[in-house]
Design brief:
433 residues, alpha/beta, Rossmann fold, 2 domains, six-stranded parallel sheet, 14% strand, binds nicotinamide-adenine-dinucleotide
Length: 433
């Protein structure tokens, strides 16, 4: 099948490469010329395990190409996926300007029946608006389908190739059939396509992300109480998560959720609720607790140094919002580093994949390190902010010998407190004393 994917970011590039890998002829469109230049040279602008190989193989087989020419791409294709960003607008709602721009461009380039797929995360009612916008600008027949994406950054290729489920929100049998054809190669062992109406599909994505965000905030709230009452949040987590009704995912206390999805999707759902006069207090509380989590971590640091951080040197391990990505959108590291800098502290940071992203964000406000050990030289304290594998079992003797004072603030509960104390560190974690 001939397919166009518009928006070649974390989602669009993975979707495009995976669809091409199944034998489709895929054109990826983006309006960022710099990104396109890199892709044409075989440079993958993001870090995502397995993606580089997949892109290169499919470009080599002429199944995958890149362009800024949306008109050409749409004319060539029967199905157009919209995978542009839907960032948080000023009032908390999803900013749909990129989706509508693309929809308008598609409308102008129509040359026959097309299925237009909302892959971007968009609020309920967006497909209706996209339909109206396109209908105003073309006389050709078309259908708009909602097909929200559930891949996880850091595991995106595998998630797309073997999805837990594929949600297809469609009000047209013809479009549904085409979408089923596209996804059938990914679902050979069991058909995990869930068909529903468009609005339910749009809502499913926000409900799923907000539920997961709430689970994280719930556990963080419990962990904060554990710390106060002298309970161990890790034991509580294990105790809770063995109940199959609760499950063992998303229950790790930490610095709260970040990334390009949860924070904005939670806010957008609250906004939709407010627009329709619905009380969204559970989800609003998840958002509030999430912000508090970073503040409490900063308070721990401040308390340890008697509220005087001026001139203190902090080593930071981990900048990406989660391991296995170079993405720092809404990463806890940004809030934490900015706050420490505002109090006169000095930062030296290291992340296995997000150094270039960090340089773009912090410029010369912080020092950048080459590896984890170089980061801790002369540090007053080490902050573990992202749980990359390589930070899991460091040589603590070496770390201690390089630091000015052996203090660790672990925002991800990675180490065994007893062993760390034995090695002579002062060790702070989340939800445990
Ligand atoms: P992104 O910012 O990485 O990528 C968006 C791309 O769209 C950029 O490359 C940008 O240059 C391009 N673009 C913007 N306007 C364009 C236009 N008019 N024409 C062509 N290209 C244009 O965003 P992302 O993380 O891939 O997210 C895309 C959507 O998918 C969002 O709605 C997001 O909520 C959703 N989503 C993201 C994830 C994730 O893990 N990142 C997971 C599921 C769903």
């Amino acid at each position: 099948m001939k397919i166009t994917v518009i928006g070649t970011g974390y989602v669009g590039l993975v979707v495009g490469a995976c669809l091409a890998d199944m034998g489709n002829s895929v054109i990826c469109v983006d309006n960022n010329e710099e990104k396109l230049k890199q892709l044409e040279q075989g440079i993958i602008p993001i870090y995502e395990p397995g993606l580089e190989e997949l892109v290169k193989a499919n470009v080599h087989e002429n199944r995958l190409s890149f362009t800024s020419d949306i008109d050409f791409a749409v004319k060539e294709s029967q199905v157009c996926f919209i995978a542009v960003g839907t960032p948080q607008g000023e009032d908390g709602s999803a900013d749909l300007q990129y989706v509508f721009n693309v929809a308008a461009s598609i409308a102008k380039s129509m040359n026959g029946y097309k299925v237009i797929v909302d892959k971007s995360t968009v609020p309920v009612g967006t497909a209706e608006k996209v339909t109206a916008l396109i209908a105003k600008n073309t006389s050709f027949d078309f259908d708009v389908v909602s097909n929200p994406e559930f891949l996880k950054q850091g595991n995106a290729v595998d998630d797309f190739l073997s999805p837990d489920r594929v949600i297809i929100g469609s009000n047209s049998d013809k479009a549904t059939q085409i979408m089923q054809e596209i996804y059938s190669p990914f679902l050979r062992t069991a058909n995990r396509i869930i068909l529903m109406d468009v609005k339910s599909a749009e809502m499913t994505k926000y409900a799923a992300n907000s539920f997961l965000a709430t689970k994280i905030s719930f556990m963080n709230e419990v962990a904060n109480l554990c710390e106060k009452v002298g309970a161990n949040a890790e034991m509580v987590r294990v105790g809770m998560s063995t109940d199959s009704r609760i499950g063992n995912k998303f229950l790790f206390p930490g610095l709260g959720y970040g990334g390009s999805c949860f924070p904005k999707d939670v806010k957008a759902l609250i906004k939709t609720g407010n627009e329709f006069g619905c009380d969204m207090s559970i989800i609003a509380a998840a958002d509030k607790t999430n912000k508090l989590q970073r503040k409490l971590f900063l308070e721990k640091i401040s308390k340890h140094f008697n509220a005087d951080l001026s001139g203190k040197k902090f080593a930071v391990w981990g900048l990406a919002f989660k391991p296995k990505t170079n993405d720092m959108r809404e990463a806890p590291s940004i809030t934490i580093i900015e706050d420490l800098l505002s109090k006169g502290a000095k930062i030296k940071a290291f992340d296995p994949k997000a150094m270039e992203t960090a340089k773009f964000i912090f410029k010369d406000k912080i020092e950048y390190s080459k590896n984890s050990y170089d980061t801790v030289v002369d540090a007053d304290a080490l902050l573990l902010l992202t749980e990359w594998n390589e930070f899991r079992r460091p040589d603590f003797e070496k770390v201690k010998s390089l630091m000015k004072t052996p203090v660790i603030f672990d925002g991800r509960n990675q180490y065994n407190a007893e062993r760390i104390h034995e090695k002579g560190f002062t060790y702070y974690q989340i939800g445990k004393i």
